[in-house]
Amino acid sequence: MDEYKLLTNNEEEEFVSDGSVDSKGRICVRAKTGGWRAFSLIIGYELVEKLAFGGVVANLMVYLTTKLHEGTVSSSNIVTNWMGTVFLTPLLGAYIADTYLGRFWTFATSSCIYILGMGILTLAVSLKSLKPPDCPSNKGCEKGSFLQTGTFYFALYLLALGQGGTKPNLSTFGADQFDDFHPTEKMHKNSFFNWWFFIVLFGGLLGQTFIVYIQENVSWGVGYGAITGLLLIAYVVVMMGSPIYRYKVVEDCPLQRVGKVIARMIQSRNMQVATDASCLHEVDSKEYLSEGRYPIASSKHQRFLDKEALLDSRNPNPCSLTDIEETKQVLRVLPIWLTDIFPSTILVQSLTLSIKQAMTMDRHIGSNFEIPSGSIGVFFQIPMLLTIPIYDRLIIPLFRRLTGNPRGITLLQRIGIGMVLQSIAMVTAGLTEIVRLDVIQSHGIADDKDAIVPLSFFILVPQLVIMGIAEAMVEVGKLEFFYDQAPESMRSLGNAMYAASNGIGSFLSGAILTLVTHITGRHGHKSWVLNNLNASRLDYFYALLVALNIINYVAFLTVSWRYEYKREPNQALGKAYSKATLVVDNGGQKAEETLI
After folding, report:
1. What is the pLDDT of residues 298-356, one digit of tens each?
2. Are 432 and 495 in contact (CB under 8 A)?
3. Cβ within 8 Å of residue 136, ≥6 positions away
4. Under a CB-based contact definition with an 8 Å cutoff, are residues 404 and 396 in contact?
5. Rounded Cα–Cα distance for residues 217 and 371 (Å)
6. Are 68 and 132 in contact (CB under 8 A)?
7. Which of 8-17, 241-250, 340-349, 582-591 has the lowest mean pLDDT?
8. Whole-angstrom Cα distance, residue 328 to residue 299?
């Protein structure tokens, strides 16, 4: 029979307080599970996975144009469409994790698909029968057959499918290793996403340097084969750590609860709005805790939804108050999510076009070494890597003293600063392109698409550095915002929303490029973006992106000004509940959960 009592401080310290369980389904012992030890194994796999992903995406544009002989516009659209898919599949992965398999096992299954995709990609770039003949002149080149291009794209989209289960769940699973109700672990969790993103960037940097160098100077097959082998080793290591991880209990589908509230809202639109919170239906706290959820007290915003929890003869099967509050939290972040899409468009266009620009320029460092065009992303990655620890160790403590905010500044302020820096980066890119075009005109090489512009690629570095700093602010801010502001039971969905904003931004990037190419090329006019970059007008295109980014920034300011942050779990639980601890005696085995 269950026994209820308050535990002493020492007994409370023994177990976690957030309902996490170990691999055998028992409430976790704090000292034996989770924390930085578990994090180190999880982040180890993420490092290798981002090494692999960086090695693929950094040189994908180069492979499409030089090996599969695709044009500039079609290659750019292939990259952006694939990147869009990579960032949209996490919506499926989050749904499966939150509803069926849990975060860890969704990640474990998806990683197998990802490794399979890397294996097929290695074969596609290695076997002569699976790639077109080499064409050193880049003129009149034979394009790949249906089998050759089909195998390559099949491998790419297997990677996208694998990312769907990895991207929203591995970072969330890493954050789950820290207890929100323990002061020290909560403090560590506040720094978690900064350091998670630091490792992600470091892995991408290694992929853009060492792996790209191997691809272009040894062989593509050796480059992809090496990272496939590393992925297999990392996967074995992370699976071996399963006994020390903390797991969240899988419950009924959270999206179904949200859908139920919205459906009831439509059906009962003529009902009177509830004014007395005591009349609202709520489930017993112990039922929530058995599912690893927390009851949430009524909030003052979006009160029109409260009527769905009203105990009334006209409402015989009311929604619970917690379901109502979770729905409010989801609806509240949607306007922010919509305005966070376009920054991803800016990022994709900046990187893909910078790579193509670098391919037309002098990339020599000294007299003997030529940097691969796919590796110029290091000048974007390194500023991001440096910005994150500087922000975490210097800027946050400084602003924390000034504002009293544990994060220094709010997450939306951080994102907004990054958006401003993005516009500055694109203005810089436009001015740089004007200089490049002046050199092209002065040397009369505009009609030669293979001509190398006598201009060092280092002129591209300022725009990449500013964009790198901007992305350290925007991307880390977005990742932490959607994780932090999602309902406790929908953290994978929160990370999926972050990924989806990047995915839709990538698709939007391809759509804008195609539309601009079509519109500006009508009636016999020369399009702004051509396969011959030396005859293109990227400066006009960059100016258009700046204008669109400013419009989006105004919309972002409007919705963020009115945004009210979600309360912390220990604040949102309500005064009506007192802190107690449930000790369940099940065959001599004790487990602790926090009651509210």
Report:
1. 777 777 777 766 666 566 677 777 788 888 888 889 999 999 999 999 988 888 888 88
2. no
3. none
4. no
5. 11
6. yes
7. 582-591
8. 9
Distance of CA 2 to the CA centre of its chain: 42
Its sign, for the CA torsion 319, 320, 323, 324, is positive
The rounded distance, in Å, linking the Cα atoms of 494 and 411 is: 14
Q: Which tokens sit at 283?
A: 């489930």
Contact (CB, 8 A) for 282 and 320:
yes
On whether the CB atoms of residues 85 and 503 are closer than 8 A, the answer is yes
Q: Are β-strands 3-4 and 580-586 bridged in parallel, bridged antiparallel, or unpaired?
A: antiparallel
**Residue of 418, 413, 416, 420 lying closest to 565 (CA atoms):** 413
Could you tell me if 212 and 363 are in contact, meaning their C-beta atoms sit under 8 angstroms apart? no
CB 536 within 8 A of CB 528: yes
**Going by C-beta distance under 8 Å and a sequence separation of 6 or more, which residues neighbour residue 534?**
360, 440, 445, 446, 447, 448, 449, 451, 453
pLDDT in tens, 173-188: 988 898 877 888 877 7
Structure tokens belonging to residue 29: 């012992």
CB 385 within 8 A of CB 374: no
Q: Which of 58, 56, 69 is nearest to 355 (CA)?
A: 58
3-state secondary structure (DSSP) of residue 594:
strand
Furthest CA-CA distance within the chain: 89
Instruction: Tell me how far apart the alpha carbons of residues 70 and 8 are, in angstroms, rounded to a whole number.
Output: 68
As a whole number of angstroms, the distance between CA 558 and CA 571 comes to 27
Long-range Cβ contact pairs of 545-552 (< 8 A, separation 24 or more): 545/345, 545/346, 545/349, 545/426, 545/512, 546/423, 546/426, 546/427, 546/430, 548/342, 548/512, 549/342, 549/343, 549/346, 549/419, 549/422, 549/423, 549/426, 550/423, 552/339, 552/342, 552/343, 552/419
